[in-house]
Amino acid sequence: MNPLKKLFDDSEPHFTGSGKYKKLEPLFDATKTVFFHPSPKTVVMPFIRDHLDLKRYMSFVLIALMPVLLFGMYNTGFQSGIAEGKTFGLGRSFLTGAWYVLPILLVSYGVGLFWEILFAVVRKHKISEGFLVTGMLFPLTLPATIPLWQVALGISFGVVIGKEVFGGTGRNILNPALTARAFVFFSYPVTLSGNVWVAAKDTVDGFSGATALSITAIEGQSITTALSSSGFSLSDLFIGVVPGSIGETSALCCLLGALFLIVTRIANFRIVLGGIAGLVVTAILFYLIPGGQESWANAGPLYHLCAGGFLFGISFMATDPVSAPGTQTGRWAFGFLIGFLTVTIRVVNPAFVEGTMLAILFMNVFAPLLDHLVLKYKTSKRIPNV
Fold this sequence. Notes:
2 strands; 386 residues; mainly alpha
């Protein structure tokens, strides 16, 4: 027998039933599932066989996030080199970026797991693997130089207020990671403003570098010309070698993650495609309106698609099955409206150019209404019994 498995089997009676460590059963169970696949037994009908449990589901999402995370580390170090007036190679860029990113990840997981364990012990239920994704998503929405105490406060708010007050995983109305980011944004707006602090080890605090979304055209220039002259070419935005939050800069990595989730049927393609369609259609409509040369109304759909965190949000946050609609038609509408609201907020409100966060949270609230309207319409089309 596997010695590790024997150790867990021998210790299990102390944490279950009338064992002296019964209160710590959720922590024991969570530790065991890290090493072994859970094997619950169904004792009453109906019996359903499915390879996909919550742990495997969350593991697939984490795999999809790996390209975003690794590139985010590299880009953080690369931007740090630019801030210092140097050119870092691949290895040094990655190591420098890891120096900034890993502490944020550790604080997010450490503080978040504390709250997960506390609520599991008090409520006497198992620790949900859902936090594995929340603990990763939240840091990826943050700039690399955010103070760690703000990370701790943000993830605490996201887990406790965004999820646990509703009853835990599967009962939350809002996406917990976005709820955490919204708390940090509105509580400490300087940290997450349009000018993101770029990490620089050889300076006192770094310097404030404008992100693509905070660029506006100067008089006599179009917004696309202003973006290019500021170093935000469309190719750079697509690849991701630009200042910004850790996980939002690379449209390419976000698309790779979205493709993996769609192929494995973890994410519903209707939300992703609907969101892209909504953004493209709305961006084209604003583009056709005269008089918007000096604003994001004139940027066109490709710049809207690649700049900011839209692809990150629509790929990894809007597809959360708990806070998204459950009907197929509702998912199309949900995604389309997120794209529509993202562009509208960027264009109409220059003080808050990154509209993806508010667009997803707003649609999270209306997701049940979309399902209700779809079901009500389909029910009305049924042939009445005679």
